[in-house]
C-alpha cells in the first residue's frame, strides 16, 4: 500500500514515539525543494523556529551567496568542549531522473519512506530535531551544538563558512559527528573529492589547412592520456586497504570542445577529479600534472610555431577524512553506538573540512549511501529508529545522569 505524508499519518509506521516524530519532521523537510542551486532560507527558518521553541540558542548565519544560510544551534551554554551534530539540507536535482513517486512529498511504503533527501541527508536532520525535544539543557555537562549547512552537494561551501564562523568567534567544540549515511556505523576515514577544469586555447583553421591552426582537442587528448597514466601510477604508491579501491584515483568526467568536424578546434575543456586518501597525495598529483604541462609547453616552444594556452582551475576541494586514532569524536561515537571498530568509505563528506580545521570528526548517520542521489530515494524506517536511539544515548552521555 502506498500513501503520502499529505493524506496519512507518517508516524504510523514508526515503532517509537521519537521515531514517529522524526518521520513527521522529515515529511516537512522533504517538502522544501532545497536543491543546491536554490535558496535555502525558508527551510532554515523552519528548522530555526523549531529549535528556538525548544529553548536553544539559535544563530542564522547568512552567506554572501544570495539566499543561502547556515544554522548554528546550541543547547547548554557556549563553553568550549561541546559536541556538534552536523548535517546539510541541500539536495541534488531530480530533473532527468525517472521518479515513480513525487520527489518532494514523503511517500510511505512498507518499511521505507521515499523522497528526495530522505537518505542524503534530511533523515539525519529530522532525527536530530526529534531527539532534541528530549534535551534538558540544565543537565548538560557540555554544550550540544547542531550545525545545518548549505551547498554540501556542490563543494561544501557552507561547511567552509561555518569553520570561518567558529574561528572568528573562538568556538572550540571537542568533536564533530557528521550524519551522512553510514548505516549508523562509525566512519573515521573517507576519500577526498577535488575537482579541476583544464582549459586549452588553440587556434581555429579549416580542416584542409590544419597546419595553420592548433587543435585544442588534440592537446586535450594528450593531457587526458597523461592523467590516465598518472592514475595507474598511483597503484605503485601508498595504499589504504580499508577502501575497496585502496589508491587515490583520477577520473576525467567530461570533455568539451570544438564545433564542427571540418574546423580545427580552437578551444577544449577537461573536467577531472582526484580522490585522495592520505596526506600529500593530492599535492603530488597536482605537481606531476603541472610539471607535465610545463614540459609540453616548453617542448612546443622549442619546436617553434603555435603554442597553446593551458589553464587549470580548482573547482572544488573536499579533503579526505583521515583516521586519527584515538580522537574524542571516534571514542565517543563508538561508545554511544556500542560498536568496537570503525569503517572507511569511498565517498566524501564535510567531515574532512572540519578535521582539516582542527576538530576531531567522524561520520555516523542513518541510511545507505547507495540510495543517495537516486530516483525514488528512500530510507528504511528502522534506520531512523536506530538514529534517534543513538542520539538519545548521546544526549544522556552529555548529561549529568
TrEMBL record:
InterPro entries named in the record: AcOrn-deacetyl (IPR010169), ArgE/DapE_CS (IPR001261), Bact_exopeptidase_dim_dom (IPR036264), Peptidase_M20 (IPR002933), Peptidase_M20_dimer (IPR011650), Peptidase_M20A (IPR050072)
Q: Which domain of life is it from?
A: Bacteria
List keywords of the entry alphabetically.
Amino-acid biosynthesis, Arginine biosynthesis, Cobalt, Cytoplasm, Hydrolase, Metal-binding, Zinc
The EC number(s) given in the record are 3.5.1.16
Principal EC category: hydrolase
| Pfam families, sorted | M20_dimer (PF07687), Peptidase_M20 (PF01546)
The Peptidase M20 dimerisation domain covers which part of the protein? 190-299
Q: Which family does it belong to?
A: Belongs to the peptidase M20A family. ArgE subfamily.
Q: What is this protein called?
A: Acetylornithine deacetylase
User: What does the organism's lineage look like at the top?
Assistant: Bacteria, Pseudomonadati, Pseudomonadota, Alphaproteobacteria, Hyphomicrobiales
Gene that produces this protein: argE
Amino acid at each position: 500500500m502506498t500513501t503520502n505524508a499529505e493524506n496519512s499519518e507518517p508516524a504510523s509506521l514508526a515503532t517509537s514515539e521519537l521515531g514517529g516524530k522524526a518521520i513527521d519532521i522529515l515529511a516537512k523537510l522533504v517538502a522544501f525543494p532545497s536543491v543546491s542551486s536554490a535558496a535555502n532560507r525558508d527551510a532554515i527558518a523552519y528548522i530555526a523556529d523549531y529549535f528556538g521553541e525548544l529553548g536553544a540558542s539559535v544563530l542564522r548565519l547568512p552567506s554572501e551567496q544570495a539566499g543561502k544560510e547556515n544554522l548554528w544551534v546550541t543547547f547548554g551554554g557556549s563553553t568550549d568542549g561541546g559536541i556538534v551534530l552536523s548535517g546539510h539540507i541541500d539536495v541534488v536535482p531530480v530533473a532527468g531522473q525517472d521518479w515513480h513517486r513525487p520527489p518532494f512529498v514523503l511517500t510511505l511504503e512498507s518499511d521505507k519512506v521515499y523522497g528526495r533527501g530522505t537518505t542524503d541527508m534530511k533523515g539525519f536532520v529530522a532525527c536530530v530535531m526529534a531527539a532534541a525535544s528530549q534535551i534538558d539543557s540544565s543537565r548538560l555537562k557540555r554544550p550540544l551544538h547542531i550545525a545545518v549547512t548549505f551547498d554540501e552537494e556542490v563543494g561544501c561551501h557552507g561547511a567552509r563558512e561555518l569553520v570561518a564562523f567558529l574561528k572568528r568567534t573562538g568556538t572550540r567544540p571537542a568533536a564533530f559527528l557528521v550524519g551522512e549515511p553510514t548505516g549508523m556505523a562509525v566512519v573515521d576515514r573517507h576519500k577526498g573529492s577535488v575537482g579541476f577544469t583544464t582549459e586549452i586555447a588553440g587556434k581555429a583553421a579549416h580542416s584542409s589547412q590544419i597546419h595553420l591552426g592548433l587543435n585544442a582537442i588534440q592537446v586535450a587528448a594528450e593531457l587526458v592520456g597523461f592523467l590516465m597514466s598518472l592514475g595507474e601510477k598511483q597503484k605503485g604508491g601508498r595504499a589504504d586497504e580499508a577502501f575497496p579501491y585502496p589508491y587515490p584515483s583520477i577520473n576525467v568526467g567530461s570533455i568539451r570542445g570544438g564545433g564542427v568536424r571540418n574546423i580545427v578546434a580552437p578551444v577544449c575543456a577537461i573536467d577531472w577529479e582526484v580522490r585522495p586518501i592520505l596526506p600529500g597525495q593530492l599535492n603530488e598529483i597536482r605537481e606531476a600534472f603541472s610539471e607535465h604541462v610545463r614540459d609540453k609547453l616548453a617542448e612546443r616552444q622549442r619546436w617553434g610555431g603555435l603554442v597553446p594556452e593551458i589553464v587549470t582551475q580548482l573547482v572544488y576541494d573536499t579533503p579526505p577524512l583521515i583516521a586519527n586514532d584515538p580522537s574524542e569524536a571516534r571514542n565517543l561515537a563508538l561508545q554511544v553506538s556500542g560498536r568496537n571498530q570503525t569503517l572507511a568509505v569511498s565517498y566524501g563528506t564535510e567531515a574532512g573540512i572540519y578535521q582539516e580545521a582542527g576538530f576531531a570528526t567522524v561520520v555516523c548517520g542513518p541510511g545507505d549511501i547507495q540510495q543517495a542521489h537516486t530516483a525514488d530515494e528512500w530510507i528504511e524506517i528502522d534506520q531512523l529508529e536506530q538514529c534517534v536511539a543513538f542520539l538519545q544515548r548521546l544526549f544522556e552521555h552529555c548529561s549529568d545522569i
